[in-house]
Multidrug efflux pump Tap (Aequorivita aquimaris), 421 residues
Amino acid sequence: MKKTDPYAALRFREFNIFLLVRFAMVFAWTMQFVVIEWEVYSLTKDPLSLGIIGLMEVIPAVAMALFAGHIVDQSEKRGLLIKCIFGFSVVSLGLFLLTWPRIVAGLSTDLVLYLVYFLVFLGGIVRAFLGPTIFSLFSLLVPKKIYPNAATWSSSVWQMGAVVGPAAGGFFIHWIGVHWSMCFVFAFSLMALMLLLQIPKKPILNPNIGEPIMKSLKEGIKFVKNTRVILGALTLDMFAVLFGGAVALLPIYAQDILKVGPEGFGILRAAPAVGALLIMFTSAHFPLNKNAGMKLLAAIFGFGVCIIVFGLSTWFWVSVIALFLSGVTDGISMIIRQTILQLRTPDAMRGRVASVNSMFVGSSNELGAFESGLTAKLMGTVTAVVFGGGMTILTVLGTGFFFPKLRKLDLRKDLEEHEKQ
């Protein structure tokens, strides 16, 4: 096989615009989540309130996921993404207003919290459509033969936004306060909207336009169920994220355990994404396709170990290093999983498969936040984090046993087939 061009996907102008849009949205979304986490915990000093934030987003994201996948497969992707970003902008504007002292001065703390939770709930609806739409639009911007390289760059940009967003959230809270930090989030969502307008409309590749929704949804679920490699990868990542959701408890670590304030909070929040970003840029030059299944299992096993170390640490820089290494292992997992999905999902089913993926993986971030908040309330913060890391390790062992095809997965044959197209 000829040497892989690490910059192949970047030679397509529309894909570069797509990367800028994705960065702006991830930056805005992650910064917003960090700012709201900080504000809610500052108001309540209750770890369960952090879990409720995740729960309020995951309920609509899961409930609407399959329906959203059907809509995405039936719709023009660029236009639908414009609607998603507009919806996010409305939510961000609402949170900006709710953090304005002049507006909330006469409101009770409970009412402010309920309104914040309501807007987060609306954001969950937007998220149900956003993920499948981005996944589907991605495949229309580059040739199939460079999907793995494009997936690496797309994941790298996602992680770059996840690095800068949380770090900016922590520092901006310190520099300009929660209210003006939310204004910054709103501005980035508008920038993403303006960038997206530079990509022209794309054709709808689904040959079954107008297909009954129940039939469409059943086909999507059946495809994932019968494709054992995809099912195994999604199951593995879902439980790893569900039990390894220590990031949701970072405000407690920053304020009460490590006592490092908003600046330290920003560093802790960004550390996993820095590690993931580093491994993603590296993988553009050194692909992870050989023995991908074993690399995926080993990466998530390492992720669980890092979470345990973080949970037990009382030293700030040990905690930072543990989170950084958790990001390295999580980055490996993300690249391999996204490559599997892009290579083995038919064009006509990308929206539905991405929706199932969001139910398995994307929503488990919020469920993980709720699980972490609940277990922290019941067990104590440190015990909850160590418990989550241990359950992640057990999940890896179980998945490796029950999904032998995933354990033996090698993506080089898939790449050879797509290069012939």
Summary: The two ends are 15 Å apart (CA to CA). Residues 147-196 form the longest helix (50 residues). The chain has a mean pLDDT of 85. The chain has two domains: 1-207, 210-420.
